[in-house]
Design a protein that fits this description.
This protein is an alpha+beta fold. The protein has a single domain (3-72), classed as Translation Initiation Factor IF3, CATH 3.30.110.40. It has helices at residues 15-24, 42-53; strands spanning 3-8, 32-37, 56-63, 66-72.
Length: 76
């Protein structure tokens, strides 16, 4: 397991979800991806995308005006 970070600040919907999807394709099951966003819609969109695609949302919180999501990559 390794940890990775994705900077999706200043991107508007649907780009945070698309960038998250693209980044997770390169990761292994069990890896952790931290996504940092400024688009308020990402706090709903990325968790929904995780549920649909079999990834686990570990946390979602706001820090200094940014949304920080931690995702565990699902899969075999």
């Amino acid at each position: 397991m390794s940890e990775h970070r994705l900077d999706a600040r200043r991107l508007l919907c649907p780009m945070p979800v698309i960038r998250t999807q693209d980044r997770i394709k390169d990761l292994a099951p069990g890896d952790i991806l931290e996504v940092i966003c400024t688009d308020p819609g990402a706090s709903n969109d990325i968790p929904a995308w995780c549920r649909i695609n079999g990834h686990s949302l570990l946390s979602c919180h706001e820090r200094d005006g940014e949304i920080v999501l931690r995702i565990e990559v699902g899969g075999d």
